[in-house]
Amino acid sequence: METVKLNVEKRDPGVKAKDYRLQSKVLIEYYGKGIENLGAIADYQEFRRAYEKAGKSTVMELSVDGGEAKYALVHEVDYHPVTDQFIMVDMMHVDLNKELTTKIPLVLVGTAPAVKDLQGTLTTGVQALEVKCLAKDLIHSIEVDISSLEDFNSVINVKDVNVPAGLTLLDDLEAVVATVSAPREEEEEEPIVAEGEEGAEGEAGAEGEAAEGEAGAEGGEKKEEGGE
Q1: What digits encode the pLDDT tens for the residues 43-66?
Q2: Average confidence score pLDDT of the chain
Q3: Burial zone of 66 (CB within 10 Å; 0-12 exposed, 13-18 middle, 19+ buried)
Q4: Around 58, how many Cα atoms within 13 Å sit in the side-chain half-sphere?
Q5: What are the structural domains, with CATH classification, of the chain?
């Protein structure tokens, strides 16, 4: 069974949350059906390392004040709006011998020939699989080899993912996990006319109109003289 260990201590109700945070502690609420809720704290850096390994899909083994282990999954994490640091963590108790439903993230591995050789663009769909299994059978992630994407017609569906024994898939088996899109053809750009050239043409046109106007005026004056 894959678990991640974390040492925690019971929280002193007389100590304020902000004081614990000043001591680089993360506040934890551990709860679940049929158990007594527990307010606890953990060293900030120790929790950070454990959470990087476990995420929300791997069981954490909590050692409370060095006593008997308690098993839980991270249910929710609250972050500071400015520093983005952990503030509060909700952890839900799990019975290792009972089934639960959760999502396990997919990790794409390998190289797609349609990307490397044909300059296509990798497009992803489903990024986590919803599964039902015993808590003790949970794993941190599921790898998906994309080397089968040889051309732009190749597709990896949920049904193609190699899921470990003990996990029952709940997703649509035809849902797309990954495919490769063909590169877009570059559109022909329209010729750009420099402002100077356009201005010159405009000036030439204006000069021509002015010349025609002057010629017309001269013709009118001559007719008046002849009439006299």
Answers
A1: 999 999 999 999 988 999 999 998
A2: 85
A3: exposed
A4: 18
A5: 3-94 (2.40.240.10), 100-181 (2.170.120.20)
